[in-house]
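Worked example (supplementary).
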Amino acid sequence: MLAEQICYIMEESPPKMLTILLTEGPYRSQYADMAYEIAKSALNKNYRVNLFLYMDATHIPKKEQNPNSFPNVAHKFRILLEKGANIKACVRCSTARGHSCAQDPYIKGVEIKTVYELAAWIGKSDQVINLGG
Amino acid sequence: MDSVLLIIDKAPYGWEDAFSGFYVAIACLNIGLPGDVLLTGDGVYAALEGQDSESNIGFPSVEELTYLIFPEGNVMVHGPSLESRGFTEEDLVESADLISDEDLYEILTSRHKTAFIRI
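After joint prediction of all chains, the assembly is encoded as:
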């Protein structure tokens, strides 16, 4: 009976949405790793999770990264995509850094979009946090 | 969230952050989500009148972006940050509002569904 009530409540309440705005690139700081841990925890709590990559954060999902000394952040973000996170990179920022749409620069599932997508996510979100220096 | 407050505390040139922060606020306003900008610390330089970055360093004028926020959104300038850098309200663009520490406290404690984004 209790399980039925819980299921009913979960069906009636839409999942909450978390948007994470990342502005810092990988490796030089721990922000990308922190975003991964926060996003993973939120996904495990049934949040809908969005990550918007802005400015130097548009380096994070680049294909073919091969760090010698650190865990590969692109692999971590691939796990988030597999768990259902939405990840978008700012087109102005990514193009400025040489990651243009035409070159298919990112791991599969990362979209290159305008900052208007971030604005829309903010409007729909229950929580918004930003990580960056 | 029902509004957004972009907090910018870096100087407008030498960093991309102020430029990018204004872009987020402008995008929010353009889709109908109320958006304001708070300039504090070195961020107050973004609201000084008479910037000439385009001819000097080839960087777009952040001063012009302050006018794109107005009048739907507010460009708030933290007074103590401005004064400690040797400027007064007369040095600011017309669209800027000077706020005190008390005003800032009220803003931060009264907005319950605002996304506070520090860039």
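Two points are worth noting when inspecting this output. The interface with chain A takes residues 1-2, 4, 16-17, 20, 23-24, 27-28, 30-31, 33, 115, 117-119 of chain B (CB under 8 Å). Chain B has five helices and five strands.
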